Amino acid sequence: MKILVLGKGIANDGMVLLLEQKELEFDYLNPEEVAHFDYTYVIKAPGIPLSDRIIQGFIKKGIRILSDIEVAMLLHPGFYIGVTGSNGKTTTVSLICHLLKSGYDAVACGNIGYSIGKAVVEHPNAQIYVVELSSFQLECAQIDLNISVLLNIHPCHLDHHATFADYIGSKSNICIHQTPQHCAVYCDDDPHIQTIIRHTEAKKSSFSADKSHAKCCLHQDVIYYENKRIFKLTEPFKGKKHLIEDLLAAIGVVSLFAKIKPSMIRKQLKSFEPIDYRMMPMNPYIYNDAKSTNPYSTIAAIECFQSVFLICGGYDRKENLESLNDHLYKIKKVYAYGQTKDKIYQYMRKHDKECCVFQTVEEAFCQALKERQNEVVLYSPMFASFDQFENYMARGKYFNTLFQKYVSSK
């Protein structure tokens, strides 16, 4: 058996560690380095689309394409919780892991920045792996997770997936191969997820911020699970719909474990710290939401305020901005930068919103500071970071340095 690990990067670096540990024969190559198709399996890096010429060559020869999560589950059997969604994955994974640690040895990994391959090598005895799974990882995955979690689905990554239907199909792979002894935890407020969930044999457990019949639901700022009072919302969750939905999902998951009692959940939540660069307050008026990579994430941020001066821009993945229409009344002015600045400008002008364009975040931030008039300045890019930054963390750190330079030092 000969394995090709295709595409160098964080995810497949972890696969290399795992394959070496299992003493399996493999080549580790980028697509342009592939000289033949004589392999039994191909482990595809998440960023390589199935439409790639080399991938299509392997598929035509009947060679199985695997994802990192599938390989990890095959080579290191264990208890796996997988989380996917267009938004909220990282926060939900962090919440689930934090809550589980009150009774289990749990490890957060996957698209969160710590590859699943590296996680199982470095934590071979972990009781539970909580894995953030992107549509890229799921598009060729045939996995039977112990627990799958579906948060929400909006049009995203249409530069990678040919159509929105393909994107939905990739997301659905998190649960459609599950067997009846396992469980799918899902958002009952999302119509796309309602369709997907009909096609799994897994036991179903719903959560909802709006529907009281869901197994895990919200009523008058109190979260209930199977009609039992679990948690009354406090900071940092209160008033933040996106965080509440992530918390509902997390409580819906950990409540499946008899060992985790409501009192343990309440105690653990007191020490939970929100992830960096997701609605991070720099001061009462300036927020760093650099993790926002699509319009729906920015909408969730905007909805936390009465009005904002919005700084946004980045790498275009064919996002449709029309989803912003019902939320424009909260935006006082837009400061657009980067590759998508003209796209943002044209959309905002079409809707009679004041917008100015800049080359860089720094220029946009400086202008917003001059004009904000005691209003909130929200840095929520709405697009991927790749036009000017390596990833969202790099641009989040950069915005922090701008805050230190132009605000803290004054």
Which helices and strands appear, and what pairs or packs with what?
Elements: E1 3-6, H1 10-21, E2 26-29, E3 41-44, H2 53-60, E4 64-66, H3 68-75, E5 80-84, H4 89-100, E6 106-110, H5 116-122, E7 128-132, H6 135-138, E8 147-150, H7 164-172, E9 183-187, H8 191-197, E10 203-208, E11 216-219, E12 222-225, E13 228-232, H9 241-254, H10 262-269, E14 280-283, E15 286-288, H11 295-302, E16 308-313, E17 331-337, H12 341-350, E18 355-358, H13 361-371, E19 376-379, H14 392-408
Parallel strand pairs: 1-2, 1-3, 3-4, 5-7, 5-8, 6-7, 8-9, 9-10, 10-11, 15-19, 16-17, 16-19, 17-18
Antiparallel strand pairs: 11-12, 12-13, 14-15
Helix pairs in contact: 1-3, 1-5, 4-9
Task: Explain the overall architecture.
The chain is an alpha/beta fold and 410 residues long. It folds into three domains: 3-66, Rossmann fold (3-Layer(aba) Sandwich), CATH 3.40.50.720; 69-269, UDP-N-acetylmuramoyl-L-alanine:D-glutamate ligase (3-Layer(aba) Sandwich), CATH 3.40.1190.10; 280-408, Mur ligase, C-terminal domain (Protein-Tyrosine Phosphatase, Chain A), CATH 3.90.190. The protein is built from 14 helices and 19 strands. The chain is globular and about 65 Å long. It starts with a strand and ends with a helix. The model has no long low-confidence stretch (mean pLDDT 95).
Q: Report the total helices.
A: 14
Uncertain parts: none
Q: Strand pairing plus helix content: what structural class?
A: alpha/beta
Measured between the Cα atoms of the first and last residue, the distance is 63 Å
Helix content: 25-40%
Strand order of the largest sheet: 6-7-5-8-9-10-11-12-13
Largest sheet: 9 strands, mixed
Strand content: 15-25%
CATH class of the largest domain: Alpha Beta
What is the name of the CATH topology of the largest domain? UDP-N-acetylmuramoyl-L-alanine:D-glutamate ligase
Query: What do we call the CATH homologous superfamily of the largest domain?
Result: Mur-like, catalytic domain
Shape: globular
User: What is the domain tally?
Assistant: 3
- Proper CATH architecture of the largest domain: 3-Layer(aba) Sandwich
- From the alpha carbons, calculate the radius of gyration and give it in angstroms: 22 Å
Using DSSP, what is the number of strands? 19
Would you tell me the overall average pLDDT? 95
